[in-house]
Write a structure and sequence with these properties.
The protein is of the alpha/beta class and 476 residues long. Helices cover 34% and strands 20% of the residues. The strands form four sheets. Strands 7, 8, 9, 10, 11, 14, 15, 16 and 18 form a nine-stranded mixed β-sheet that branches. It has a six-stranded mixed β-sheet with strand order 1-6-5-2-4-3, sandwiched between helices. Strands 12-13-17 form a three-stranded mixed β-sheet.
């Protein structure tokens, strides 16, 4: 879906939104005495009031600023999301946000919640459903010197929508080659470079983990290299983002149950969608940062030639892995990508993956699990970014003792530990393939939801996109 953002004069029709910080102070809003009295009474019980004048809809949004900035901005986004149903009911596709001189950041947060909450994935309906009425344009009125911020907001929303669309795309219409082609199209739109490795090149590079997972598929694997290297980049060594690109995961021979598991495994490439979307944002906004995304991609199916529990796989790094569970496939393909990343002598590598159910069990959909070897200042910058966009980080330890849980009797490593500390042992496995500052992000709990969580849509949420956009912006 397409959504435009402008800094323009008020449209003639229909909706106008005002941020209110004090229900008793409505100065600057053109209300009659009766309307003002009505609004003040309504704002005693609710934070959002709609006045329908028939030729225009006046929306007043009350936000209490007594909490921390991250909480206040999140309240703004959630209230912005509440506007969606009002505008759809009134069949309004355009809205003006009337700026307050000192509250433009808050108004942008409300607009972001409205924009993200308006997302719809309607591609496969034979006829547009009634709910297809959607927002088309947001105008920012009186926002002085905010053109850059508005363009960044537009690009950020576009990036999240790209990620959501890819995650929501069914495996019947998106195999590994199709996913790589989607990245090419994003690159053409935004201006980043895309290089795709196919089966022969992957074999030449000895990416044994990716090739092993792909053995059960009738579709070939891909390895996508996305590069944004502007002339004014502030870093000589790249920041590398690695995304898991399993377009569909049956679990392989270690077959998953269908209900509440295999039935939504089209989402298992969410990490790949996230990092590609961050590259889109970087190129679209001309971010002065050298950034690379690496995305290994395949599906994981139980064909007759599928890799099996008990197999030993020689990885890209040369290390050997005893496979004890073919459903622990994400770490196999990520390990090859992390090993390949060494060739770039990177400043920092961050991998993003729907990697373990253990991460989802530990923290639910409320945050993102992180662990790694990067310095404390880098982790603090990541956590600050998470607070700002409300994609919060929970840091797990990588103590040496966890390494004992993935020792193999016949190879360098085994690809699973026991039931305990499952998210951590997955991270500990990946640690064996890095040689640089590194952060692992497990988005299994937040990447795909069974029901909407305010502006985080049902299905693909794009979780991680806004987090990493804020992080790379800080690093730039």
């Amino acid at each position: 879906m397409e959504l435009k953002f402008t800094r323009s004069p008020e449209s003639q029709f229909f909706a106008k939104a005002h941020i209110v910080l004090d229900r008793n102070n409505l100065s600057g809003i053109a209300l009659s005495e009766a309307e003002s009295s009505y609004v003040k009474i309504q704002l005693e019980e609710q934070n959002l009031v709609a006045l329908n004048r028939y030729n225009e809809l006046i929306l007043l949004i009350l936000i209490d600023k007594s909490a921390s900035e991250s909480i206040v901005l999140e309240k703004g986004r959630k209230l912005g999301n509440e506007l969606v149903s009002i505008l759809r009911k009134e069949k309004i596709g355009e809205i003006d946000f009337i700026g307050l001189p000192d509250e433009q950041l808050l108004a942008l947060a409300v607009a972001e919640g409205l924009a993200l909450g308006s997302y719809q994935f309607l591609k496969y309906f034979s006829a547009p459903p009634k709910k297809s009425q959607h927002l088309e344009q947001i105008n920012f009125v009186g926002f002085q010197d905010s053109e850059t911020e508005i363009k960044q907001l537009e690009a950020r929303v576009e990036a999240v929508f790209f990620a959501r669309d890819l995650v929501n795309e069914p495996a019947s219409h998106l195999n590994a080659v199709g996913l790589a082609d989607s990245f090419k199209q994003m690159g053409k739109l935004a201006g980043f470079k895309t290089e795709i490795f196919h089966h022969e090149k992957i074999k030449e590079l000895n990416m044994g983990g990716l090739l092993a997972v792909n053995k059960g598929s009738i579709d070939p694997p891909t390895f996508s290299v996305l590069t944004w290297k502007p002339a004014n980049a502030k870093n000589k060594k790249p920041i590398i983002l690695v995304g898991k690109g399993v377009v569909y995961d049956t679990g392989g021979l270690s077959l998953k149950p269908t209900k509440d598991s295999m039935d939504f495994m089209k989402c298992d490439m969410a990490g790949g969608a996230v990092v590609a979307s961050v590259l889109y944002y970087a190129a679209k906004t001309n971010l002065p940062l050298y950034v690379i995304a690496l995305i290994p991609s395949t599906d994981n199916r139980p064909d007759g030639n599928a890799y099996a529990p008990g197999d030993v796989v020689v990885m890209h790094s040369g290390k050997t892995v005893e496979v004890l569970n073919t459903d622990a496939e994400g770490r196999m393909i990520l390990a090859d990508a992390l090993s390949y990343a060494k060739d770039y002598d990177p400043e920092l590598v961050i991998d993003v993956a729907t990697l373990t159910g253990a991460a989802a069990v530990a923290i639910g959909q409320q945050g993102i699990v992180a662990m790694g070897t990067a310095g404390s200042s880098t982790f603090q910058t990541l956590k600050n970014a998470g607070e700002k966009v409300y994609e919060r980080i929970v840091e797990f330890p990588l103590w040496d003792e966890y390494g004992d849980l993935i020792k193999s009797d016949i190879a360098d490593l085994k690809n699973v530990g026991g039931r305990e500390a499952g998210a951590i042992t997955a991270g500990k496995f990946l640690e064996h393939f890095i040689a640089y500052p590194w952060i692992h992000l497990d988005i299994a709990g937040s990447a795909f939801l069974g029901s909407a969580d305010h502006y985080r849509s049902k299905g693909g949420t794009g979780a991680g996109v806004r987090l990493l956009i804020d992080l790379v912006t800080r690093l730039a």
